[in-house]
Design brief:
Elements: H1 9-26, H2 32-71, H3 76-117, H4 123-129, H5 136-145, H6 149-159, H7 163-175, H8 182-191, H9 201-214, H10 221-227, H11 234-278, E1 301-303, E2 309-311, H12 312-320
Antiparallel strand pairs: 1-2
Helix pairs in contact: 1-2, 2-3, 3-5, 5-6, 6-8, 8-9, 9-11
GO biological process, one term: autophagy
Protein name: Vacuolar sorting protein 39/Transforming growth factor beta receptor-associated zinc finger domain-containing protein
InterPro entries: Vam6/VPS39/TRAP1, VPS39/TGFA1_Znf
């Protein structure tokens, strides 16, 4: 039962959130119900906090407007007396707003971390529960967990408009070897932006060219050139193409050098092989094992490249020392 003296959902949910976090992390509980419930509680609290912060901001604006009117009064005595009270009230309002923003930031951070770390919540239920135009970063994390990289990128790149986050997301996926076409996906979403994008056509195109320039080693250049719309100005592509061609030439030279080194190594190995194959060893009645100092005789022995022969058992013992 919630405390009736607590007015806002974020206040009412605080104890339950603390309990569930302890249950999940300290008790290692992996039940989907509790993980999903915790996310829903965070959503409720964050929405409530955002409304509260917006209300306080509106109140501050009204307060500042009233304060200006009062300070314009002609009576100096009234202005001085009321001015002191106004200062106290304004300071209290600023402090309250700062505290609410801190709680909001901490709650959002905890929610994002939980969504990243937990694999037990019901992703489909949460996606249905999210409002259409909020909790966008949270949606992107869940979509990523479901392997919906293109949908996640559309949110990050076009609804959040966060270039750095989009490229960091792609790099993370690339490093995990989960999707080798992830940078192609990013290029596609910039070249063919959704209607909901907050980016203009020119902004989106410039970002696509930036991806090509900065991450050319992560994409197939031939495939990229095929994707480019016909209306892309050639001048916009010159710098990117120069960068790509330079990297391709560097890769070609590196590959050529590696092939040459491999050829030299193969030649050296062949010579060594022929030398060893043509070598011979004579086991005589007076050939002794240098480890046990006994005659090799008819025992199985190991012959080393330097011509030293040992009993097989002695050779194993010698190699372990």
């Amino acid at each position: 039962m919630k405390d009736a003296t607590l007015q806002h959902p974020w206040e009412q949910n605080a104890l339950e959130i603390t309990f569930l976090r302890n249950l999940i992390w300290s008790k290692n509980n992996t039940e989907a119900f509790f993980h999903t419930k915790l996310v829903l509680l965070y959503m409720s609290s964050i929405s409530s906090l955002q409304e509260n912060v917006e209300m306080l901001q509106r109140r501050r604006i009204r307060f500042e407007s009233h304060a200006e009117k009062i300070q314009s009064l002609q009576e100096q005595q009234i202005t001085a007396e009321i001015g002191a009270d106004l200062g106290v009230a304004e300071s209290g309002l600023q402090t309250l707003l700062h505290q609410r923003n801190e709680i909001l930031f901490r709650s959002k951070t905890e929610l994002l971390e939980f969504l990243e770390l937990s694999n037990s919540y019901d992703a489909a239920e949460l996606l249905r529960s999210f409002p259409a135009d909020s909790f966008l970063e949270e949606k992107a994390i869940i979509l990523s967990k479901l392997g919906e990289d293109l949908a996640a990128l559309e949110i990050i790149a076009h609804r959040l408009g966060n270039k750095n986050m989009a490229e960091a997301y792609c790099q993370k996926v690339w490093n995990s070897n989960r999707n080798e076409n992830i940078f192609i996906h990013l290029l596609k979403t910039y070249l063919f932006p959704p209607e909901s994008s907050i980016l203009s056509r020119n902004e989106s195109l410039k970002l696509a060219i930036g991806v090509l320039t900065d991450h050319s080693d992560h994409v197939n250049i031939v495939e990229v050139l095929r994707l480019l719309p016909d209306d892309v100005p050639l001048n916009d592509l010159i710098e990117s193409i120069e960068v790509v061609m330079t990297k391709l030439e560097e890769n070609r030279r590196s590959s050529l050098m590696l092939r040459q080194l491999a050829a030299v190594r193969r030649f050296d190995v062949s010579e060594e092989y022929m030398s060893l194959r043509n070598s011979s060893f004579e086991n005589t009645p007076v050939t002794f094992c240098p480890v046990c100092n006994r005659v090799l005789g008819d025992s199985v022995f190991t012959l080393f490249p330097d011509g030293v022969a040992m009993h097989a058992a002695c050779a194993r013992q010698h190699s372990m020392e």
